[in-house]
């Protein structure tokens, strides 16, 4: 079963094994955007814990209130998190995010989707 | 020209200079490019936000001696948005002379997204005689840095019969002095209330307290061990942990725990179908009643009201 969903900031693809979130190109992910992104993710997951693949290659900026929200309130029901990045810009974004927040679940950044998926398979089992 | 590497590096220099002065409210406009300079800009903006937050927080933790310098951005505009008056503080904030600002339209100082917000929102507010709102606006300084902040906008009727005017206000924190002079730079002193400093925290102590902080965040659903045991586990004493935590995070260990549990529960109440009892249990509250009380204490309404 595959479910897809889209809002202003992201596209979601939900499969049996994982949730794939592709962030769209936007000027800045602020708190409002982050809340919407998390709300829709939780709505799709319906309480199921699962690994999440976050494609942030198009992201230009995530401001601090949004980063804090995503790391604290917004990190529930995730068993493992892989960022798909396109260095150098999104690499820097994920590094700062990971470097300034306590890691609640296994989290890593990848430039190759296949490696990201392998990581999630290894670490994201419930 | 604005896209040459030379130009972009100069902007970065200006930004770093402002940070060195203790001004963390500037930022750099992100570009569409995905190159090393763009990544540096992104990193600088984020580091700036992190340091800025820590900086103000540090002031908060040491609230009894915080000579925070406040810069007020204050502009008086006519209904077209033409700037009629500007305070000196605003001029230095925008690194321009009064004569360079007065007479200009406020939109000329804004980024494109802010222009859109301004144009859209002000139509509505200018229909009324009096109106107040808060808009998040990005202004561009003469040096090309961004000042992004919530601005209080008030529309009022001038008494001299010249019609309506707009006041635009915002407040920025600048360089404060959270540490007393003569103190070694890498050591924080712990205060008990507003009394004298009693314990000195080494960088290792600070690291240890950060670990406790992260440990709490990652175990919100579990009971917190006694502070005494926790301190022992971390190779320190209860006193240092207790007051050191308060010094660094501005709140006690238990208040922090409750606050983070409530934050987590709020998201669950809003976006999940779990029962309130389950949520209370998942976020470490002993009973739904206790949960409800604590939640109301923080957010002003009960979990049931929020879900309603």
List descriptors.
heterodimer; A: 126 residues; alpha/beta; Transcription Regulator spoIIAA; six-stranded mixed beta sheet; 4 helices; 25% strand; globular; B: 308 residues; alpha+beta; Beta-Lactamase; Arc Repressor Mutant, subunit A; 4 domains; two-stranded antiparallel sheet; 12 helices
Description of the structure:
The complex is a heterodimer of chains A (126) and B (308). The relative contact order of chain A is 0.17. Chain A starts with a strand and ends with a helix. By secondary structure, chain A is of the alpha/beta class. Chain A has a 6-stranded mixed β-sheet, sandwiched between helices. In chain A, helix 1 packs parallel to helix 2. Chain B is of the alpha+beta class and 308 residues long. Chain B folds into 4 domains: 61 residues; 104 residues, Beta-Lactamase, CATH 3.30.450; 63 residues, Orthogonal Bundle (Arc Repressor Mutant, subunit A), CATH 1.10.10; 52 residues, Orthogonal Bundle (Arc Repressor Mutant, subunit A). Chain B is built from 12 helices and 8 strands. In chain B, strands 1, 2, 3, 4, 5 and 6 form a 6-stranded antiparallel β-sheet that branches. A two-stranded antiparallel sheet of chain B has the order 7-8. The N and C termini of chain B lie far apart (55 Å). About 7% of the residues of chain B have low confidence. Chains A and B meet through helix 1 and helix 3 of A and helix 2, helix 6 and helix 9 of B.
């Amino acid at each position: 079963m595959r479910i897809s969903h889209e809002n202003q900031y992201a596209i979601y693809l939900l499969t049996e094994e994982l949730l794939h979130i592709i962030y769209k190109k936007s000027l800045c992910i602020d708190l409002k955007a982050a809340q919407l992104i998390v709300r829709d993710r939780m709505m799709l997951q319906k309480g199921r814990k699962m690994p999440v693949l976050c494609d942030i290659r198009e992201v230009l900026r995530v401001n601090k209130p949004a980063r804090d929200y995503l790391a604290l309130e917004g990190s529930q029901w995730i068993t493992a998190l892989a960022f798909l990045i396109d260095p150098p810009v999104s690499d820097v974004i994920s590094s700062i995010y990971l470097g300034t927040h306590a890691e609640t679940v296994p989290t890593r950044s990848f430039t190759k989707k296949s490696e990201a998926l392998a990581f999630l398979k290894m670490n994201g089992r419930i | 020209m604005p896209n040459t590497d030379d130009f972009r590096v100069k902007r970065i220099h200006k930004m770093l200079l402002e940070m060195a002065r203790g001004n963390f409210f500037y930022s750099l406009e992100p570009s569409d490019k995905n190159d090393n300079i763009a990544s540096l800009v992104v990193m600088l903006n984020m580091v700036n936000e992190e340091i800025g937050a820590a900086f103000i927080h540090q002031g908060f933790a040491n609230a009894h001696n915080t000579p925070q310098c406040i810069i007020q951005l204050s502009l008086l505009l006519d209904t077209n948005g033409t700037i009629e008056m500007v305070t000196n503080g605003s001029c230095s904030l925008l690194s321009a002379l009064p004569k360079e600002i007065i007479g200009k339209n406020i939109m000329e100082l804004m980024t494109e997204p802010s222009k859109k917000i301004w144009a859209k929102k002000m139509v509505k507010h200018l229909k009324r005689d009096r109106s107040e709102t808060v808009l998040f606006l990005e202004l561009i300084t003469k040096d090309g840095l961004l000042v992004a902040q919530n601005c209080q906008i008030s529309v009022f009727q001038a008494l001299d019969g010249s019609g309506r005017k707009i006041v635009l206000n915002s407040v920025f924190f600048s360089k404060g002095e959270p540490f007393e002079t003569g103190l070694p730079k890498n050591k924080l002193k712990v205060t008990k209330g507003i009394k004298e400093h009693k314990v000195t925290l080494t960088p290792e102590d600070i690291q240890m307290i950060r670990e406790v902080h992260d440990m709490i965040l990652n175990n919100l659903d579990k009971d917190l061990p006694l502070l005494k045991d926790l301190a022992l586990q971390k190779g320190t004493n209860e006193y240092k942990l207790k007051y050191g935590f308060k010094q660094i995070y501005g709140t006690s260990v238990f208040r922090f725990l409750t606050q983070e549990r409530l934050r987590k529960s709020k998201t669950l109440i809003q976006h999940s179908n779990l029962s309130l009892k389950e949520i209370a249990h998942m976020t470490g509250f002993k009973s739904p009643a206790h949960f409800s009380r604590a939640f109301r204490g923080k957010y002003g309404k009960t979990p049931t009201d929020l879900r309603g």
